[in-house]
Amino acid sequence: MTGTPADEVSGTPSGTPADEASGAAGGAAGDGAVAVDAYLDCLDRVDADAATRLVLGLLDAGWSVADVLVDLVAEAQREIGRRWLTGRWSVAQEHAATHVSEQVVAAVARRIPVAGHRGHVVLACVEGEWHALAARIVAEVVRAGGWRVTFLGASVPPRHLVTYLHQTGPDAVLLSCVQPNRLTRAARMIEMCRSADVPVVAGGPGFGPDGRWAAAVGAMAWGASARDAVDLLERRFELASADAPAPPPGDEHVAVLRRRREVVQAVDLALAPGEDESELLAATVAQVLESLAASIRVGDPELVAEFVRWQRQTFAARRPLHDALLAACAAALTEHPQATRYLELARRTD
């Protein structure tokens, strides 16, 4: 990419941020790729004002709320994630860019007229899940579709969620999960929602490619995008009459989670990390065990294997440590045959 996307869209080599944003909005109205590039340039400069002008200009040019939030903001955030994953951006840069997008989503939300004639939806992130921007985007797209939406935000404790459901009696719950290692918590939340007779529509990559693990943890449907959520909510009565999911085949996943502290200590003793690495090792082992428990819960070893792939990609230099870490975890869990088998398969993954 040469030059700045905002300059390319506006057709001028320089100018004020306001000129760039208004020019970008005008040129990007008919070209989604150009719009994403222009928006990414705003994020790169951490220019919330320019990003907001760009997006509101697109709304004025005829883009829908779903168009700007799903095809522009969410798409740009995926690129931001790739930049962090490949080491091009630091955590600080990713956080700064995400904060800009949060301000943009808030500005778009102020453009949505009050409606709510289709019913009431509660949207929450799984307990322990702190990535809330994607869920907020879903909330605003659903609200633009005519629903009254109560967004409970990140990391909602299950008991607080179900209490709120009893107090408000919504038509459905939209549950967001970005990380698959949170699926055991998602299962608990979904079970409590169902006990309150409220159907759950799942969303987010945490439920697996194409939502393959959503049904296994009790969700009545899964949507890949905010647009899918709107479509699925139209079928809420059909969702509410769906059969209950089959119970998990056993409770080995529970045993793995209960032994988390013990396994962390065993791995620390086996690997003897340096003082500056001990905390990172403990956190990594805890994440592996959460992924392992979720993998057992849904009956698919690919879940923990995919987590290991992601870890190896993120911390490429630590692959030997990961192999030793997985072996040490397996040694500490020898009395749990499914856990040790899944860990062995994960060690073999590329």
Short description:
The chain is of the alpha/beta class. The protein is built from 17 helices and five strands. It has three domains: 5-109, Methyltransferase, Methionine Synthase (B12-binding Domains), Chain A, domain 1 (Orthogonal Bundle); 120-240, Rossmann fold (3-Layer(aba) Sandwich), CATH 3.40.50; 252-348.
Please give a structural write-up.
Residues 118-240 form the B12-binding domain. Keywords: Cobalt, Metal-binding. This protein has 350 residues and is of the alpha/beta class. It contains 17 helices and 5 strands. The protein has helices at residues 5-10, 17-28, 32-44, 48-60, 65-85, 91-109, 133-144, 158-168, 183-195, 226-233, 236-240, 252-258, 260-271, 278-298, 302-314, 319-332, 337-348; strands at residues 120-125, 148-151, 172-176, 200-203, 221-223. The chain has a 5-stranded parallel β-sheet with strand order 2-1-3-4-5, sandwiched between helices. Strand 1 (120-125), helix 7 (133-144) and strand 2 form a beta-alpha-beta unit. The longest helix has 21 residues, at 65-85. The radius of gyration is 22 Å and the shape is globular.
Descriptive terms for the model:
single chain, 350 residues, alpha/beta, Methyltransferase, Methionine Synthase (B12-binding Domains), Chain A, domain 1, Rossmann fold, 3 domains, 5-stranded parallel β-sheet, 17 helices, 61% helix, 6% strand
